[in-house]
Specification:
With about 160 residues, the protein is mainly alpha-helical. The chain is built from six helices and two strands, in the order ααααααββ.
């Protein structure tokens, strides 16, 4: 291979790399750069770079965000025109967009101190009292009981003073 051919091969491989990183498929790159097949593009990158490019996560997230934005307009238009399956398609696009942006993340409670734990327990007990599941006069304390045939026997209570 001559110096010019090597330079051309390097330029094509470099361009293929750029297209791949920007989100193009191997087939799209082959079509655009005149390779015979997607596997030839892959081999060119492997030969020149020793590896194949993998778009980074933030780029892929942005790429999918743009793709979902592009799909949302036609999906919404189809819903407005009453096309069959349009609501399902629009809902799917909306769900994927929400998941991508983390809008469907589960609600989490993070307790990091004793004061927060105590406050959470107090709030929980207050709600249980309001719901009638705890007597209004219930006090904080330890209750020890021995259960025999579903009947408590020998109940002992002690108050815990903080």
């Amino acid at each position: 291979m001559s110096r010019k051919q090597r330079a051309d091969a390097a330029e094509r491989a470099s361009r293929a790399w750029q297209l791949r990183v920007s989100g193009s498929t191997w087939q799209e790159i082959a079509d655009q750069l005149g390779y015979v097949s997607p596997s030839n593009v892959y081999r060119a990158c492997m030969n020149y770079f020793g590896t194949v490019p993998q778009p980074d996560k933030s780029f892929r997230i942005e790429m999918w965000r743009q793709r979902l934005e592009a799909l949302w307009g036609p999906a919404l238009r189809d819903v407005q025109e009453g096309r069959a399956g349009a609501i399902r398609a629009a809902t799917t696009v909306a769900q994927r967009a929400a998941a991508l942006d983390g809008l469907d993340a589960p609600t989490r409670v993070s307790v990091t101190s004793d004061a927060e734990i105590d406050a959470w327990i107090d709030d929980y007990a207050r709600l249980k009292r309001l719901a009638g599941e705890l007597p209004a006069e219930a006090e904080e304390g330890d209750i020890f009981a021995e259960v025999v045939e579903d009947e408590p026997v020998g109940i002992e209570a002690s108050r815990v003073d903080a």
